[in-house]
Amino acid sequence: MSNISLSPQDQAKREAGYKAAEYIVNGMTIGLGTGSTVAYMMTRLKERITEEGLSVYGVPTSIQTTMRATALGIPLTGLEQVEKIDLTVDGADQVDPELRLIKGRGAAHVRERIIADASERLIIVADPSKICQQLTGPVPIEIIPFSMSHVIRRLSDLGGTVIVREGVKKDGPVISDNGNIILDYTPPAIPDPEGLETTINMIPGVVSCGIFTEFTKKTTVIIGEKNGPRIIGL
Questions:
Q1: Taking each helix axis from N to C terminus, what angle separates 36-52 and 8-21, rounded to the nearest 10 degrees?
Q2: What is the model's pTM?
């Protein structure tokens, strides 16, 4: 795809995604994240499979990623079929200087957290708009439908605003791949991401929130920029 046909943001996403594909080596099991920047990595990975005879297996984090990988011809396997994942490439909605993340705009953060936890290394691909000095939200939260009113009350008690994420081109709420509802919570501020992550995840009915603080020691962030990708971390 020519740069001429891409917006500056999409060019940045492609720079990051293509660079991430360089970290993949023969024989790896790869966690395949969800989102538009990861899609560029998958496109380049398919090219490497074709050009170099690269032998890899992907573990997808969403139905969308499964469909995209299948269309590209990237071999897939399931989490239950592997002992570990060598490397996961995923996106983020926000990244702070400590490499703490907010994820979940694509409603896939529960599976993304599981795959990240199972991985030896996590590469986050992003365009410059995703880099911030402090996480601000909104924080996606996947909840069991039965718990919705209770969780909303508990979040409201913390301050800020809570909305039920509505579907696009469908009536009613967004339903995750796990059959759950997604809330978007915007707190007044997030001075302590670790503390807020724990507080939210401890509310009965919450499956997982989109604050990711536990993977910083194995995270590399690749930021697509005009003069080439910038790499932070490992």
A1: 40
A2: 0.95
CATH code matching the domain that covers 139-210, chosen among 3.30.70.260, 3.20.20.70, 3.30.70.20, 3.30.10.20: 3.30.70.260
The one catalytic residue in 15, 112, 142, 197 is 112
Strand partners, 232: 221
Name the burial class of residue 147, with classes exposed (0-12), middle (13-18) and buried (19+) by CB atoms within 10 angstroms of its CB. middle
Q: Which CATH architecture has domain 3-131+214-233?
A: 3-Layer(aba) Sandwich (3.40)
Token output for 143: 């909840």
DSSP state of 165: P
**Local confidence pLDDT in tens for the 234 residues of the chain:** 445 688 989 999 999 999 999 999 999 999 999 999 999 999 999 999 999 999 999 999 999 999 999 999 999 999 999 999 999 999 999 999 999 999 999 999 999 999 999 999 999 999 999 999 999 999 999 999 999 999 999 999 999 999 999 998 888 999 999 999 999 999 999 999 999 999 999 999 999 999 999 999 999 999 999 889 999 987
Contacts with 96 (C-beta within 8 Å, 6 or more apart), sequence order:
132, 133, 134, 135, 193
Is 112 an annotated catalytic residue?
yes
Q: Do 59 and 76 touch, CB atoms closer than 8 A?
A: yes
